[in-house]
Amino acid sequence: MNQQTKYAFLFPGQGAQAVGMGLELYKESNVAKTIFDSIDQSLGRSLTKIMFEGPEDELRETINAQPAIMAVSLACLHAMRSELGESFLSSPSMMAGHSLGEYSALAASGVLSVSEASLLVQKRGELMQLACDQNPGTMAAILGMNQEDIIEIAESSGTYVSNINTQEQIVISGEKEKIQTAMDMASEKGAKRVIPLNVGGAFHSGLMGPAKDGLAAAVESVEFFNSTVPIIANCSAKPIYDSSDIKDELITQISGCVNWRQTIEYMIDQGVTDFYEIGPGRALSGMVKKINKEMNTYNVSDLASIRELKNS
After folding, report:
1. Could you read off the pLDDT of 98-138 as tens digits, one per residue?
2. Coil, strand or helix: which one is 302?
3. Peptide bond just before 67 cis, omega within 30 deg
4. Residue ranges of the domains in the chain?
5. Which residue in 100, 91, 95, 92 sits closest to 71, CA to CA?
6. What is the pLDDT of residue 59?
7. pLDDT reported for residue 198
8. What are phi and psi of 228, to 5 degrees?
9. In angstroms, rounded to a whole number, what is the distance separating the alpha carbons of residues 5 and 217?
10. Considering only CA atoms, which of 215, 255, 259, 269 is closest in space to residue 237?
């Protein structure tokens, strides 16, 4: 890689989970095993058993999926540094995580310890599940429709714009009947596709309101450090460093919109050309390419992909 190349680390969010993820790393990388074991110890339960063996329904539960995805992301990061040397990809220009991935970014940048991050993510999952039980809802992806039109549809249907992922893909959240109304409206107004999502609730919407106070209390009980690497915030798509700003972002983010397209565009405007998606799945790399096909994307999800980086 050219010395002048600016690169960023990206960390995936919920939905990237799959039974068996991280198992190869656990067996073959001592540093990865240490990360997995420390998270099990912090949580006081065998999260790795659910990750490696399933069942899938149990792994998909928010309280398990969120810390599990973060565990794989952090294990990948530490295995990469162990395999390729501390100096290899040691100074990303920026970091960002999609929703839950923001917590992985905070642990990766030293804002939170791995132990504190895993406990906080588990608590976030619990609180989100309680909010889902209290305010049942769902989500839908609208493809191929102007952002302004989707905002208008959300306002008139009583739903929320929850994820602006790319120019072509925006996700809405809300009560099930209202989401159905919004989907029908989007289809009538010419959306290319409207896809109901198989999720447990209306994430990143006002329906997550009941989770905010609990998360604020949990965030305040944990020690945060300032970040030395700019974290590009989901809600503002601007860099944050200060621990108090980071805490505010996490509390806002649970019921606020994830401005992912804007986040990636900000990084590109700052000269980033190479994006490393660290953790399970390839969803974020796909989004980066849809936002700007000129960008270089790399996936770090297992030892094979880590070793491929040597030749990239």
Report:
1. 999 999 999 999 999 999 999 999 999 999 999 999 999 99
2. coil
3. no
4. 6-133+206-309, 138-197
5. 100
6. 94
7. 84
8. -90, -20
9. 40
10. 259
Catalytic residue, chosen from 29, 42, 73, 99, is 99
Cα separation, 168 vs 36, in Å, equals 36
Confidence at residue 188, expressed as pLDDT on a 0 to 100 scale: 97
The DSSP code sequence of 30-77 is HHHHHHHHHHHHHHTS-HHHHHHH--HHHHHSHHHHHHHHHHHHHHHH
- 99 catalytic, yes or no? yes
For the segment 197-227, what is each residue's pLDDT rounded down to a tens digit?
A: 988 899 999 999 999 999 999 999 999 999 9
CA nearest 49: which of 68, 77, 63? 68
Q: Using a cut of 0.85, tell me whether the model's pTM lies above it.
A: yes
DSSP 8-state class, residue 29: -
Please give the pLDDT value at position 22.
Answer: 97
Please tell me the predicted confidence (pLDDT) of residue 196. 95
Are 137 and 202 spatial neighbours (Cβ–Cβ below 8 Å)? yes
For residue 161, what are the β-bridge partners? 172
The CATH superfamily holding the domain 6-133+206-309 is Malonyl-Coenzyme A Acyl Carrier Protein, domain 2 (3.40.366.10)
Q: Which of 21, 64, 11 is nearest to 40 (CA)?
A: 64
- Which residue among the candidates 73, 118, 173, 204 is catalytic per the annotation? 204
Pull the structure tokens for residue 95: 């970091």
Q: Which one-letter amino acid corresponds to residue 78? A: H
91 is catalytic: no
Q: What angle do CA 115, 120, 126 make, to 5 degrees?
A: 130
Those residues of the chain that have pLDDT short of 70 are: 1-3
- Phi and psi torsions of 168, nearest 5°: -100, -15
CATH class of 138-197: alpha beta
Look at the alpha carbons of 188, 192, 196, 201 in this order and tell me if their dihedral is positive or negative. negative
Q: What are phi and psi of 247, to 5 degrees?
A: -60, -45
